[in-house]
Structures are given as structure tokens and as C-alpha cells.
Design a protein that fits this description.
By secondary structure, this protein is mainly beta. 10% of the residues lie in helices and 50% in strands. It has a five-stranded antiparallel sheet with strand order 14-13-10-9-15, covered by helices on one side.
């Protein structure tokens, strides 16, 4: 089944309850990877016009968080339980996982993201590590890879 969602130049492809995306922006590319392991029911409860293209949602410590996929980045939002308004927490190349806590980091809970750095005259450096943030979007540290992070952190 093929359908176009929202005003963004993106086609979402679904088979049964699985979803993948094909982007048509200034270049055409296929979105893939663990950040797209979601189903139609994960995002259809939110209005695309109000929340963007929601690819994941989480309940963490009595708070509701959603991750949206934009053309070149993902964004983490906190949803106000009373007004259902969203507040931007962080924009990153990829919002990865949430952790209950990590050794030697005082803030809890946390999330890991891949951050792409851009050169001031164009181009970018490929991400070489994971960046750790608190749920307010403050950078707390980095981890070289998932193997390292899993030794010292407890993930949801």
C-alpha cells in the first residue's frame, strides 16, 4: 500500500502493520535502520500536522515523549499531559535509546543520540560516538559505542 503523508515530500510504504519511508527532497533516499522499526499504530494516534511524522512514543517517569522524523534529523518532544502541546527537547541526526541511569552520571533518566556535526563552510563529519543527554536536552557526556554504553547503563 502506498500513501503520501502530510505536506512533506515523503512517501510512507506499509505492508500489513510495518512501515518504511521514501524521502523526496533535494535528493531522494530511503529511510532505514532501527529508528524506523515502528508500526502504523505507533504514530496514527497523533495528528501529523500538529506533531510531525511521529516514529516512536515513550512513557518515561510519568512523562510522554515522542520522536518525529524530519527530512534531515529527528526531534524529541515532551507532550504536556494537560494541554497535549509539545515542547521540543532536542534535535539530532538520530534519537537512539532511553536509559534509566548510567554509572557516574547524576541525572536520570537519560537518552542517547547520534549528533552530526557540520563544518562552517559546508560538509559534515560522520558521527563517531553517542551523545548522552538528560530529558531537558542538556549534554551530559559521550560513549564510544553501544557495547561500552550497555556495560554502564540500564536501558528501558
Amino acid at each position: 500500500k502506498y500513501f503520501h503523508k502530510n505536506e512533506y515530500p515523503r512517501i510512507w510504504l506499509s505492508k500489513e502493520n510495518r512501515v518504511k519511508a521514501l524521502n523526496f527532497g533535494w535528493r531522494c533516499y530511503f529511510l532505514e535502520g532501527p529508528e524506523l522499526n515502528f508500526t502504523k499504530t505507533n504514530y496514527q494516534t497523533y495528528s501529523a500536522e500538529k506533531y510531525g511524522d511521529v516514529i516512536a512514543k515513550y512513557e518515561i517517569e510519568n512523562g510522554e515523549y515522542v520522536i518525529t522524523q524530519e527530512v534531515t534529523y529527528q526531534e524529541l518532544w515532551k507532550i504536556d499531559p494537560n494541554t497535549r502541546e509539545k515542547k521540543s527537547i532536542k534535535k539530532a541526526f538520530s534519537i537512539e535509546k532511553f536509559a534509566e541511569h548510567c554509572e557516574s552520571i547524576g541525572e536520570n533518566p537519560l537518552f542517547f543520540a547520534t549528533v552530526k556535526e557540520y563544518f562552517f563552510l559546508g560538509g559534515w563529519a560522520e558521527p563517531r560516538h553517542l551523545t548522552i543527554f538528560d530529558l531537558d536536552g542538556n549534554k551530559l557526556g559521550i560513549a564510544p559505542n553501544w557495547e561500552y554504553a550497555e556495560k554502564f547503563c540500564d536501558f528501558y
